[in-house]
Specification:
Strand 13, helix 8 and strand 14 form a beta-alpha-beta unit. Strands 3, 4, 5, 8, 9, 16 and 17 form a seven-stranded mixed beta sheet that branches. A six-stranded parallel beta sheet has the order 12-11-10-13-14-15. It is an alpha/beta fold. The protein has twelve helices and 17 strands.
Length: 369
């Protein structure tokens, strides 16, 4: 992936003739405003998608405000995209006009490295993100799903099962695969095993649902006691631990086969490792800004594993969404209009959402140009 320059601005290329319309931020204030721009024409291997819904991921907020110091302005966020195909290229055989499809965090990769050839495009050094990325040899910015349409290579398009409501399926294309992939590859999907889920937000609530769909015992670990009723009665968790309650944490030591840690704030890791059985695994999918401290003995004694995971490959994303369709796994959402997005970002910064905002693009994003 071509690394963008901090705060760099690149104008849309005029040779891309397809008109599109979206919401963009133009500086680190992160304020989104109407933005007409251009998409490339539909190529032989492309599909063009009318966007119906787009989820709001916390990484959208980080990117809007340039908190990761890599934002290219103007930026059109959004990588939890669901829509309807309106055009297909001559080489496209597996999709047709009218199909309901999704686009997640990636829209291209080198397609030749070991990661790509083994189904891990998400770890390709040349992966192209759905937004805020610059394809080699192109020079244009990728713009995301806070927009009315998108053109994507067919290999990076996900078919949405008919059984899933499209608005509630959208967040699965990021939040869903982010927890599903490490659960699969680290064996945390075995019926009867005990799974701990740290944090009950956009990622955590989906992890609880997948854990139960896999047939696991699920315990939510949270710093907030007020989430206990929500976790157990609404999401179906089997138990709840308050991470600041020393007695509860001590009583639960060495009882879990694995833990998915979804928290993006700085937090203590050793107490969580203490919850694992010998040879247990803890997978980080949250991204705290500051380094986490992990004493070696917390891993050595008990032979425990601490690993990380970043979204998932395209094959696994399709597998995840098909599994979700079979087991009725959806995200809990608050559906909003396009003109509410800036308010939603303010609320998201305060964690005031249960659990994912989704923009009703088709009905509420209207060009005034």
């Amino acid at each position: 992936m071509v690394a963008p320059t901090n705060g760099k601005k690149i104008a849309p290329e005029e040779e891309h003739p397809r008109k599109a319309f979206g919401l963009a931020a133009h500086d680190s204030s992160g304020i989104l405003s109407p933005f007409p721009f251009s998409r490339r024409n539909n190529g032989d291997n492309d599909v063009s998608i009318k966007i119906l819904y787009c989820g709001i991921c916390h990484s959208d907020l980080h990117s809007l405000k340039n908190e990761w110091h890599n934002t290219i302005y103007p930026i059109v966020p959004g990588h939890e995209i669901v829509g309807e195909i309106i055009e297909v290229g001559s080489n496209v055989k597996n999709f047709k006009v009218g199909d309901k499809v999704g686009v997640g965090c990636l829209v291209d990769s080198c397609n030749s490295c070991q990661s790509c050839t083994t189904g891990f495009e998400n770890y390709c050094p040349g992966m192209i993100l759905t937004y805020n990325s610059v394809p080699p040899g192109d020079g244009t910015i990728t713009y995301g799903g806070y927009s009315d349409m998108i053109v994507v290579n067919q290999n990076f398009v996900i078919r949405i099962p008919e059984s899933l409501p499209l608005d509630k399926a959208a967040p699965l294309l990021c939040a869903g695969i982010t927890v599903y992939s490490p659960m699969k590859y680290h064996g945390l999907n075995t019926p009867g095993q005990h799974l701990g889920v740290v944090g009950l937000g956009g990622l955590g609530h989906v992890a609880v649902k997948f854990g139960k769909a896999f047939g696991m015992k699920v315990t939510v670990i949270s710093s907030s006691l007020r989430k206990e009723k929500e976790a157990i009665e609404r999401l179906g968790a089997d138990a709840f631990l308050v991470s600041s309650n020393a007695e509860q944490m001590k009583a639960a030591m060495a009882c879990m086969d694995g833990i998915i840690d979804t928290v993006s704030a700085t937090h203590a890791i050793p107490p969580l490792l203490g919850l694992l059985k010998p040879n247990g695994k803890m997978i980080l999918v949250g991204a705290p800004e500051k380094p986490l401290e992990v004493p070696a003995f917390a891993l050595i004694f008990g032979g425990k594993t601490l690993a990380g995971s970043c979204v998932g490959g395209i094959k696994d994303t399709q597998e995840m969404i098909d599994f979700a369709g079979k087991h009725n796994v959806t995200a809990d959402i608050e559906l909003i209009s396009a003109d509410y997005v800036n308010n939603a970002m303010e609320r998201l910064a305060k964690s005031d959402v249960r659990y994912r905002f989704v923009i009703d693009i088709a009905k509420t994003l209207k060009s005034n140009v």
